[in-house]
Amino acid sequence: MASKKKKAAKAGAGAVAASRAARSNPYVQRLVEDDQLRDNLRTAYESARKAYERMSNGKGPAKALLDDKKTQRELREAASSLREAADSLRGAKAKKHRRRRGRVILLIVAAGAALALSEGLRKKVLDALFGAEEEFEYSSTTTSSSSAPQPAGAAT
What we know:
Blueprint lengths: L1 H23 L1 H8 L1 H21 L5 H7 L1 H22 L2 H25 L1 H12 L26
Helix pairs in contact: 3-5, 6-7
C-alpha cells in the first residue's frame, strides 16, 4: 500500500509543477484572459472538424478538396481563425510586417501586369537588362540557281 501512496504523491507533485509552469507561461495566460483568442481557436477547431467530416464521407478527400465548395469554405475559415489567433498571440508587430508584405506583393503583381500588357515597357526593360538589339541586314553569300554560271560542258 505504501507504494501506491508514493505514486500518488509523485503524481501530485508533477501536477503542481505543471500548474506552476502553466501559470508562468505567457501564452497560457493570454489564452485564459483573451476571449477573442479562445473564440478564434474554437472556430478554427469547429471548422476543421466539419471539413474533416465532409472529406471522410466516402467520396474521398481529393474529390472533397477539389470539388466541394463547403469543404473549401470550412478550411478557409479554419485557416483564417488560426491566423487571427496566431496574430493575437504574437502581438501588434506581426500586423505591420503583413501590411508591408502585402504592399510588396501588390507592387510585384502590378509590375508583372504592366509588363504583360505594355509592349513598349517590355522592350525597355529587356533593353535595360540585356542591352539594345543590334539591327543588321542579312545578305546571302550564296547565289540563286537561275543566275549561277553554268559549267562549260553543259548544254543550253
